[in-house]
From TrEMBL:
Protein name: Nitroreductase domain-containing protein
Acetylation keyword on record: no
Pfam name, any one: Nitroreductase
Source organism of this protein record: Leucothrix pacifica
The keyword Flavoprotein belongs to this UniProt entry's keyword annotation: yes
Domain Nitroreductase per the UniProt entry, residue ranges: 10-198
Named cofactor requirement(s): FMN
InterPro entries: Nitroreductase, Nitroreductase-like
Amino acid sequence: MIVQLTEALTQRRSIRAYQDKAAEPELIREIFTLAQQAPSNCNSQPWHVSVVSGEARDKLEAALIERVSNGQKPVSAFKPYDIGFVGDFKERQISCAVELWNAVGIAREDREARTELFLDNWRFFGAPHVAFISMPLNMGEGNALDVGIYLQTLMLLMVDRGLACCPQGALALYPEPVFEIAQVPDDHGLLCGVSFGYADMEADKNKLKMPRLSVDECVTFID
Ligand SMILES: Cc1cc2nc3c(=O)[nH]c(=O)nc-3n(C[C@H](O)[C@H](O)[C@H](O)COP(=O)(O)O)c2cc1C
């Protein structure tokens, strides 16, 4: 299925429940091949991507869930995602979580249900595939911008080809088993993971359509 860019852009959303159906390896390869068209500073292409499916995916899920459930401390190779989250940014972070709890009917005070939902990150939300995106450890913000462009290119291609995904900073927080099982280059740091597959659109979690600021709150037009 080929859809127009505007359609792909408005259709795409973070998908947190999947059908029990793997994508064809040829389709996966086609999507990741096309994503290589993403532009980057000096054509440096600083991203490395490990796509994990099948038994390796299940092994990785078990290793990650064990770590998170045992309360292992998360670590970040780069500056944490929530750096600078004060004021409006903090409020948006909180309402992002609250919107999800509301969509699945979890009360704010139900800690247990919230923890289970949080743990779903490391179950890849039931997706049959997960990609881990890294860049060299000696790189910084400018290079991360390139990886961000790559990420959006990848996500739109998935929509274009009938797949769905969820980008996840959470998947960068327990790097040990990821480096081992997903064969991430030694001199790289993880930026995020992307769970992907066919969306289960019956799931409440996937009914969520996150709001955005208006254009005038983010863009200044000057004549
Ligand atoms: C870099 C990045 C990291 C993210 N990390 C997570 C995550 O760890 N877990 C999660 O459930 N969603 C994660 N998200 C999804 C965001 O919550 C989501 O993009 C945002 O709320 C907007 O919703 P939408 O993607 O459905 O439009 C992440 C998104 C991005 C771009």
